Amino acid sequence: MNRRASVLREMGLAPVWRLRDAPGATVDSPPAESATSAAVAGDLEPVAAVAAAPASEPAVLPARTAVLPTAPPLVAPARVATEDMDWAALEAAIGACRACPLHERRTMAVPGVGDRAADWLFVGEGPGAEEDLRGEPFVGQAGKLLDAMLAAIGLARGRNVYIANAVKCRPPGNRTPEASEMAACQPYLERQIALLQPRIIVALGRPAAQTLLGGEVKINAARGRLFDRAGIPVVVTYHPAYLLRNPQDKAKAWEDLCFARAALAPR
Question: Cα separation of 235 and 256, whole Å?
Fold first, then answer.
């Protein structure tokens, strides 16, 4: 079994079907082990998923692109002036932040990790217990799944990818961050985006999507649509922790990643 097949099996998506006779779609021929009319592994219903194409020829999903009007980002209280911060100053400010009660129980703040010249920015919800101990996002079981998701489209943590969270400190009991907590952290995420200037942002889960898009977001309704955020395309998909609890939706996440790569903004 080759590496790609192993990655797709980790995601619960092997073997993968090929899209055929889709109007306007271009799909590379999948490897022999993927070009089979077998059902997707596990309890998933049969799904037509696009096989990962080389980075120079991204896969294209048919009739899914819908560029929506620009959604303004959530306006956060002016708690921290981050506009002139470089990476070192920004991470120091995050580590010393007392802007909301989440700092009271944290072990470590979790600024983000990855390539600071990355084309791809993945934004999650907030740190969990293991992230709080290590100071790095997505290092638990959800992190392993995220790494598999990245590998499935030819990416890797730290190589052309930066990973951050909407909030930088762990909410107690891994609960969903409150609006005030996300607003307090908003200036940090805004500055990370300004420093990175990514070509595309992938919002992992509803809190991240709402932070980035500045309003109520329903994942099922937002999937397959390309949002514009100050000139940067944003794609919304499920959080890896959700996928661990709901593996039947892994195929949808795989579809979203293919869609994101097809939508990658040109330089």
Answer: 8
199 by Cβ neighbours in 10 Å (0-12 / 13-18 / 19+) ranks as: middle
Proportion of the chain above pLDDT 70, given as a percent? 69
Tokens representing residue 16 in the block: 């993968």
Extended strands (E) in the chain: 112-114, 120-124, 161-165, 200-204, 227-229, 232-237
- Per-residue pLDDT reduced to its tens digit, 15-26: 443 434 433 433
**Residue where the block lists tokens 């991240």:** 208
pLDDT band with cut points at 50, 70 and 90 for residue 264 = confident
CA distance 114 to 58: 22
What are the structural domain ranges in the chain?
A: 87-262
DSSP per residue, 74-135: PPPPS-S--TT--HHHHHHHHHT--SSGGGGT-SS---EEE-TT-SEEEEES---HHHHHHT
Alpha-carbon span 42 to 29, nearest angstrom: 24
Asked if 94 and 132 count as a contact pair (C-beta separation under 8 A), the reply is no
Q: Is-above-0.85 flag for pTM?
A: no
Measured CA to CA, the distance from residue 190 to residue 185 in angstroms comes to 9
Do the Cβ atoms of 122 and 149 come closer than 8 Å?
no
> Could you tell me the two tokens for 31?
């490897």
Assigned CATH for 87-262: 3.40.470.10
Over the stretch 145-154, which tens digit does the pLDDT of each residue have? 999 999 999 9
